[in-house]
Design goal:
alpha+beta, 6-stranded antiparallel sheet, 4-stranded antiparallel sheet, 10 strands, about 10% helix
Length: about 190
Amino acid sequence: MADSPVSLMDHDKGKAATEWRTSSQYFLPSSAHPAISKIRTRAQQLLRVPLDHQENAIQVLRYREAEKYDAHNDYFDMSMYKSQTAMVKAYDHGWKNRLLTLFWYMSDVPEGGETQFPRAGGRRFNGNYAECQGLKVRPEKGSAVLFYSLTASGDLDDFSLHGGCPVLSKDTIKWAANQWVWNKRF
């Protein structure tokens, strides 16, 4: 496991990822274990999106006590990455983007650690990315949350803003995993 990074927008260049995110991560490649291939296939069947639209690895996350990830979007708004020409080109100037996130909970967290959706249901966002607010989903082992980053028309969905609230339970680790699915082949 290593400290979880963030993709820094142009206006955040030079800042430490820990200003927003304090979890640890590991990318588990699809070839690492037969169970990963089975999970990817089940996700494909559930989501009805081709398997080659999924990222080739699953991001496993560990959040210890007080660790969190401030509210953010999983899509890439290319207007925020203009100076990063390689990224803009790789994501086809924004035409290639994350369509949805399937987020699995692999442990129970008695207090804190919720996934927050500050803008769910059309809520107004108060601009405080660090505050846990809005709809909150409590981590329960074996459950998952699915949310879209793009609208049906392919536009960026600002209501997909989400984050990981701090784990408040002592001696509890939040284990979770991200599987990102793209609107085009990955």
